Amino acid sequence: MNKSELVEAMAAAADISKAAAERALDGATSAITGALKGGDQVTIVGFGSFLVGERGARMGRNPRTGESIQIKASKSPKFRAGKALKDAVN
Question: Which three-class secondary structure string do you get for 36-74?
Fold first, then answer.
């Protein structure tokens, strides 16, 4: 499912226009992004949690030359499915 298919499904489920559903989806994704940028965790009960994971600095290897390189620390967004979502999938 891509974004346009998700917008269509949201519009049908909420009985709203596709434009309104797209604005709602864009608003939700920007709110989640903003919260994660601020270091917060976003929990949607029954669905799951969005959080920021920390990856420490580490040594890597350049596959072309075999030379060791230093990979700097970074943050990455993560998602943990809630129990209701896990049960619905299984």
Answer: HHCCCCEEECCCEEEEEEEECCEEEECCCCCCEEEECCE
Q: What CATH number is given to the structural domain containing 58?
A: 4.10.520.10
Look at the chain and report how many structural domains it folds into: 1
Q: Could you tell me if 68 and 77 are in contact, meaning their C-beta atoms sit under 8 angstroms apart?
A: no
Residues of the chain under the 50 pLDDT cut: none
Count other C-beta atoms under 10 Å from residue 80's C-beta. 12
Model confidence, pTM: 0.81
Q: Please say whether the beta carbons of 82 and 49 come within 8 A.
A: yes
